Amino acid sequence: LLSSNQVKHINSLKQKKFREIYRQFLAEGSKLVKEILESQYKVLNVYAIADWLKQNEDILLSNQVSFVEVSLGEMERITALSSPSPALAVAEIPEMTGPPTLINDLVLALDDIRDPGNLGTIIRIADWFGIKTIICSESSVDLYNPKVMQATMGSAFRINIFYTDLKKFLSSLSPEVKIYGTFAQGDSIYSTPLEKQGIIIIGNESSGISNEISLKVTDRISIPAYIKDSRHTDHAESLNASIATAIICSEFRRRMG
Amino acid sequence: LLSSNQVKHINSLKQKKFREIYRQFLAEGSKLVKEILESQYKVLNVYAIADWLKQNEDILLSNQVSFVEVSLGEMERITALSSPSPALAVAEIPEMTGPPTLINDLVLALDDIRDPGNLGTIIRIADWFGIKTIICSESSVDLYNPKVMQATMGSAFRINIFYTDLKKFLSSLSPEVKIYGTFAQGDSIYSTPLEKQGIIIIGNESSGISNEISLKVTDRISIPAYIKDSRHTDHAESLNASIATAIICSEFRRRMG
Fold this sequence. Notes:
- By secondary structure, chain A is of the alpha/beta class.
- The first copy, chain A, has helices at 4-12, 16-22, 30-37, 50-55, 57-62, 72-78, 116-128, 146-152, 166-171, 211-214, 241-256, and strands at residues 24-28, 43-48, 67-69, 87-92, 106-110, 133-137, 160-164, 179-188, 198-202, 219-222.
- The A-B interface holds A 105, 117, 121, 124-125, 127-130, 153-155, 158, 190, 223, 225-228, 234-237, 239-240, 242-243, 246-247, 250-251, 253-254, 256-257 and B 105, 117, 121, 124-125, 127-130, 153-155, 158, 190-191, 223, 225-228, 234-237, 239-240, 242-243, 246-247, 250-251, 253-254, 256-257.
């Protein structure tokens, strides 16, 4: 049974303010809870229905995680999703060191990504393409927002994600580090040289890469729209931020094949 | 001023059942309404606040579209979005002929895409990459669902989208037509031959390509995950359906240079 204090505490973690006070966050849904139990994250408590607890007894015991059996009706009082799930974990937000100073692989840098679904999807793309580090500007949506966690499908637990002053971070890098940014007038990603290491900047959903960050970009790239017939040049004005990220990461990795 | 019959009629169009009865749908938001006014679609009525009507007087008059001035409070009673927008159009669902029988370009075929955001995003990707035709299985989410319309950002008005029995459609094609489908064990899209024309099947969000459709696939392809270090092979289990579509379309178009 859930106490009213537990309900209150869990619900408070849906807000960034309380996540920062308690240094805790929620991971909800059967898959996400299993993923976090198998990760390096410290899980403080699992709230789950009897069936789920029974099915996942081994992993709970081997991780020595404390758990509380709740009814689906009780889950409704604590869920962060549109409908209650069989399991919800409360976990510790790990202390992060500063972002890396030596860039010897591809790194994504997010310049003010605001949509939780986009951030989650970008983390999942990074995980697929073996990109281990993401740097987020301080104004980017919070990684521990329940909607972000949901959209990552567990990939967040395998990637190092830092929040920092993006301009300062880029300024601190060795001048040899390539900084790629997507602009309508950039060179086609299909033909321009792409290095095996460097920073790929992803801009805000509506305004793109900010002026101060664009000054740091060393290589302006673009994803060309395909126009078969020059009489019909009308096409989508832009691609969604996470779609553009996927196409860019795919092309970088293809070259490294 | 809006009559209660108008409010009732507009709200009914949020449901597929009534869209099919009236053969009408909603396009909401300033950008989407402008896009539909510039398209081949027949707009029956525009409901908008005074400012928007003033700004868009020219396009309304040149298209001879009837319009109703409403307050933002009235927009709240008819909006299909989470917050009311300055303009909403009621338009006619066009009569579609059957899908094409001759395949002389790339065509997307959606095998049971259920998420409105995914369908909208896939349509926007197709528009970007100059893919003019999308075939949807009958169980796919309805194109005229307001959430799909929203996610297309107007691209739906530039693409031919057909709903049909996908298995029958694929069976009716000439046996020379390539039918590409993504499978975990398929050949890497980065190295396998890709034709300039053919069908690209996109599977359902959770179950992928159905068994009966997979029998029709002539070329099994895959998007390889990037694994740098064979000691760390753990990565995202899959990519979202619209993310996979973007990567595949990008690679087809890259080859066509």
